[in-house]
Design the sequence.
């Protein structure tokens, strides 16, 4: 019985210590405080740092997105403005321009990709043919850095 009481008291003490530690005053350390002055630069404490931190522009991501849709800039997105981008995408898929999207029109890209991968025109793909359908990854260009000279032995 005493084990349970002692365990409960210990748990309460740990919780109390955690509350005190997390709610205690925080010290603010400026990342610039540890940077030494550059050569020829005088470290003046009197040199004024800006009192306010510059902030990003006032436009949020949603405001920018709203402005992309609001083509006439009247502060309201009309139904036509909202549907314009979807109509363009639909028009690309509607290859016969009849205003109706058949399954074949919708699946054109997939069927074309399948037909290109099925080299033997058997109507099915083997493992080698299927491997050609993997998405192509963009290769990042490596920076053109000068070669580093090998260190010389000064003992020789």
Sequence:
């Amino acid at each position: 019985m005493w084990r349970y009481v002692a365990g409960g008291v210990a748990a309460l003490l740990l919780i109390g210590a955690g509350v005190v530690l997390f709610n205690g005053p925080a010290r603010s350390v400026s990342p610039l405080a540890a940077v030494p002055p550059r050569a020829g630069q005088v470290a003046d404490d009197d040199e004024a740092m800006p009192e306010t931190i510059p902030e990003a522009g006032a436009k949020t991501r949603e405001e920018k997105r709203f402005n992309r849709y609001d083509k006439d800039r009247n502060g309201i997105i009309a139904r036509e403005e909202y549907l314009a981008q979807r109509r363009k995408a639909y028009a690309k898929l509607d290859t016969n321009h009849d205003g109706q999207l058949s399954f074949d029109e919708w699946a054109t890209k997939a069927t074309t990709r399948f037909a290109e991968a099925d080299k033997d025109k058997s109507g099915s793909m083997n493992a080698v043919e299927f491997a050609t359908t993997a998405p192509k990854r963009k290769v990042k260009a490596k920076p053109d850095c000068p070669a580093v000279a090998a260190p010389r032995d000064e003992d020789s």
Q: What stands out?
A: The mean pLDDT is 78.
